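Lab notebook, bench 4. The sequencing result for the construct came back, and we need a structural model before the next group meeting so we can plan mutations. Quick request posted to the team channel:

Model the 3D structure of this chain.
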Amino acid sequence: MLMFLFVASTLLVMAVTKVYSFSEAAPQSHPPHSTGFLGVKLIFAHLNLQRLPSTENRLPASGTMRSACLSLLLVTACWALPFRQSGFLDFMMEDEAGSGDEVTTGPFPPMPDGPKCPFRCQCHLRVVQCSDLGLKTVPEDIPDDTTLLDLQNNKITEIKENDFKNLKGLHALILVNNKITTIHAKALNPLSKLQRLYLSKNMLKDVPANMPKSLQELRIHENEIAKIKKASFQGMANVIVMELGSNPLKSAGVEAGAFADLKRVSYIRIADTGITEIPKGLPGSLSELHLDGNKITKVTGGSLQGLKNLAKLGLSYNEISSVENGTLANVPHLRELHLDNNALTTVPSGLSEHKYIQVVYLHANKISSVGTGDFCPPNLNSKKAMYSGISLFSNPVPYWEIQPVTFRCVFDRSAIQLGNYRKK
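Done. Here's the predicted structure in token form:
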């Protein structure tokens, strides 16, 4: 409306000025009753600016015309709204989609509730992190769609029956470094999709019961577990990695058939315990077996029976004094053998006939002699793999007495580690 008044007033002033100027320049060229002359007379008559006699063909004087124009402009200005300076934010708002002149008023729609997150915890992309908070119990209000729950480094003492009742989609549960002594027999039942369970550095005396069959990785080292029962891993056919080290285990505490259901396990570590022999009935699917830091005294032929897929065997830091003949034949795909820091007096037999073994650690033993046939076969054309690492340092054998031909099947001379023996 304001723009219409301004345009109309401007056009009117321009029309009057033009007629007035033309009339002064050629007053005799228009007939007394021309259209332009009558229009001007009617306009001034309507505005009561000056009486127009019907018998005279005269336009208003120059001063009167200027007054009329000024009056028209003032009338337009009076209708104008107050001037408002536009700022940068106004400019930005004009560019926003939907920021028109019409403003809707009324009740605002209710704000949707955001995802729940336990107090003091951090929640992001279905990961709930509640570590290092000094918690004594599992927090409530854990989102139902959580896939990873981190509760490590707290002071939780007990896992109750309903602590994880709604976490059916949980894939990983981290409870490392708490003070857990008991886990309710039904506490893990709702976790039908759990794949990784980390329970190390707690005070558990038994392997938790009724663990999910979906479990693929179980780490329960550094607890107070003294027995592994036959039913401990019942139905856990999907487990691939198992860590049981740093528990007060004894060989007598490992029941026969305790590992029978672990059909797919490829990695087992039972290090730093009190076992005196290699556990019997280990799964044939194993590719890595770590038994370091125990009290094993010998390796018998039957202790590795059935481990045809074993590629790495760790027996460091035990009390092994002998490896029976034919033992290495039971692990035909073995590539790494760690027997360092034991009590061996000779190089284990069978290394020269083994087809795939490439790394042998024998340092820090009591080996006093090394023969030319201890590592390599007599025939250089055999299909035996070349050694990439042999360690013999910290043994009483004088390294300068070892014949160079002893290491004829070593890929690189730098792979041989020899050194002086230091008596303990």
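The helical segments are 2-25, 35-46, 62-79, 88-95.
Will bring this to the meeting.
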